[in-house]
Every structure is written in C-alpha cells, then in structure tokens.
C-alpha cells in the first residue's frame, strides 16, 4: 500500500544554500509533487507516496547527504506532523560537548573518561557501568569546577528556537540526559525546557564524592520519560519527537513518532533512519511542517 509522505530537505543556512539542483534531485528520487518552500534557500518539503519510507529516506540521503550538497533529508507521514512532546538529549545534542569528559580533564582523568564515554555512546559498554565509572573519575572536583565547565558549553545551533517554537505551540519539552541533574537543571532553564531529568551526582561540602544517588537514568529510562510525558500531555507516542546522538538514546529515538539522530555516532546512524548530519535544530521544526515565519527566535 502506498503511503502519503513528505520529504523535507534542509541545508545549513550558516554555510550552505539549498540549491534548485538539490531540490530537483530530491524530487526525482521520490517522484514527488511540486516542492513547497519552508525557508528560502534553506528548506523545502516535497509531497510523495511510497511503499517504503525507510528506502526513500536512505536513497535521498545517499544522493544529497554528500559534501557536494550537504543537505539533510527527513521523511515523515502526512499525519501527526506537529508534535506535542519533545525530548532532547543533553551532551553533544543540546550542548556541544560531553559533560563528564570536560569535567574529567580538570581532574587529570580526561583521557580515561573519554575512552569510557566512547565505548558507552557506541553501545560497546553497559551504560550504568560506564556512568558509575566516569562519576568516580570526577571525585575531588569542586562546585567551582562544575561552574567553569558549564560556562564553557556552547548550545546547539537553533536549540532555543526549537524549544520556544514548540512551547508556544503547546508542546511539552524536556531535557533528558544520562548526565547529571546539576547540569540538566541549569541548561534546561537557559534553553526553556519544561522539564529536565538526569542522574544525581553526590556533592558534599562543595566537593564531588564520585558517587551517584538513586537509580541510574539510562537508555530504557529515557524511553519511560517519553511515555510518561506523552501520557501527561494526553497524546499518543506518535505525537512525539526525540533527538539524540548516542547509543543510550536509541530506545527513545526508535519509540517516538519521529526520532532524529542528531550529528550522531555511527552505531546510532545504523539504527535510526531519520538523521540531521549537517544542520542545526531548525531542521526538526521544518520536518514538522513549520514555515520559517512561524519559528520563534
């Protein structure tokens, strides 16, 4: 059975322009109708029908996700496009960097921590084991060290636009991380997320003990938060969008109505078909059918 679908093409407005050639190539690949401009020189959507959306997006990405074009391609259905729940990962997604790796550098354990992070984010190490091991490498750091690391973060391109626009359209938004609540609470406040969830790092008298308090928030718990937020908003999981980069994000990415691998690890890109590899977070709004004029800056 042929499924009514939308191919969204997005170029990074900071260093690229969505060319007519790229648009026509995308249209030819999916045998689509006339493109609809969402943002001049940045994003279009192309209606088409297909029996296999996965094959369609992979064909489009193979042709356009090259250094020649540098265009992100996302295929969705025509229903449930405007999502009512957003969950974003923190490290290397909402912010550019890995919290624990950056902290460990201040403690002289950066190389070991980065090695564990790499193994965990590529699915080669149990997440709970990895987070406890990395937390221990931070023992002795002070709150001032945490503040210094926080100040060094750069937010992902357009993440504030994504959250503001979805909040304004009555969606629930949440920052959900396998990292620490000390950071998620502060970053969520800056960006404007409604909720934040993470792991509790023990701090006594202003010093990190290296211990984690309470149950570990890992891959399955991220998915549970997605389910809970959908229930709270009174919508089905089809009405949700999630984004992340690591192996611990895969359960929530594959469960959501639209799960987007954001500048993700190779192991994630193998399992999550909708991807943003060149652009910022505006791509997630265009994939939902938002026009540039509807984005809140």
From TrEMBL:
Active site feature: 89 (nucleophile), 91 (proton donor)
InterPro entries noted in UniProt: HAD-like_SerB, HAD-like_sf, HAD_sf, PSP
Reactions catalysed according to its record: O-phospho-L-serine + H2O = L-serine + phosphate; O-phospho-D-serine + H2O = D-serine + phosphate
Gene3D superfamilies for this protein: HAD superfamily/HAD-like
Cellular compartments per GO CC: cytoplasm
Example GO biological process: L-serine biosynthetic process
Co-factor requirement: Mg(2+)
Source domain of life: Bacteria
GO molecular function: L-phosphoserine phosphatase activity; magnesium ion binding
Annotated keywords: Amino-acid biosynthesis, Hydrolase, Magnesium, Metal-binding, Serine biosynthesis
EC number of the protein: 3.1.3.3
Record pathway: Amino-acid biosynthesis; L-serine biosynthesis; L-serine from 3-phospho-D-glycerate: step 3/3
Hydrolase as UniProt keyword: yes
Protein family (similarity comment): Belongs to the HAD-like hydrolase superfamily. SerB family.
Protein name per UniProt: Phosphoserine phosphatase
Gene: serB
